[in-house]
């Protein structure tokens, strides 16, 4: 059970229901000694520190990292085959240690690019975010942040489902933010982007650094560090959150206390 505040009513209710059926529970929380942390059998604290803004940013990143660490632990010590070898585990851990420096460097290098893009799209009324595989949840996160703090209607979709609805919305007035970093899904996402572009869509893409081929297909691009596919959610999330921040700031909205939102939903 995952909750930044540890007080979310429906999550707490579901946890109690599961425990009443004799099933052991694990909570992933940021707030120490919160209701969900106390109710669960075991808890992993993300230790992201106090998050003042209503729209979670660092809490999301911390939750993803905890889930990755948990997956690595299970993959290295479980009885199921195949298991991670010590060498493979060391490779993953080394990349985790490198992440803070990578994010800090790319944040500084791409900040101006992201700010310029925000100025370009500050008057957009709708935005579609697309991702495949491990990047689909990141597309959801990017769209959520944009709608939460800038009040622009934004929706995240799995790119493979584009023909089941989203493609009907695409025209020259609806920009598409696509997660098109290198990996197993790149060719497929490019195919989706070409379909969107053929319908007049303005394509903004997150691409791996140095990927000139993909860059040539886009109207606008933000370069991120070229990392292992399992680490793409980290390098892709930050620029999307930053984009939402700059759009909201240019619109003059309150990025810390967006209208009608609550930090934690304590009633069902």
Mean pLDDT: 91
Q: Count the DSSP helices.
A: 8
Contiguous uncertain segments of 5+ residues: none
Reading the helices and strands in chain order gives EHEHEHHEHEEHEHEH
- Overall, the morphology is globular
Rg, please?
19 Å
Count of separate structural domains: 2
**According to CATH, what is the class of the largest domain?**
Alpha Beta
Secondary structure class reads: alpha/beta
Question: Using DSSP, what is the number of strands?
Answer: 8
CATH architecture of the largest domain: 3-Layer(aba) Sandwich
Q: How is the biggest beta sheet arranged? A: 5 strands, parallel
Side-by-side strand order of the widest sheet: 5-4-6-7-8
Percent of residues in helices: 40-55%
Can you characterise this structure?
The longest helix is centred in the middle third of the chain and has 36 residues. The protein has a 5-stranded parallel sheet with strand order 5-4-6-7-8. A 3-stranded parallel sheet has the order 1-2-3. It is built from 8 helices and 8 strands, in the order βαβαβααβαββαβαβα. 47% of the residues lie in helices and 15% in strands. It has 2 domains: 95 residues, Glucose-6-phosphate isomerase like protein, domain 1 (Rossmann fold), CATH 3.40.50; 152 residues, Glucose-6-phosphate isomerase like protein, domain 1 (Rossmann fold, 3-Layer(aba) Sandwich), CATH 3.40.50. The mean pLDDT is 91. It is α/β, with parallel strands linked by helices. It is globular, with a radius of gyration of 19 Å. 40% of the residues are buried.
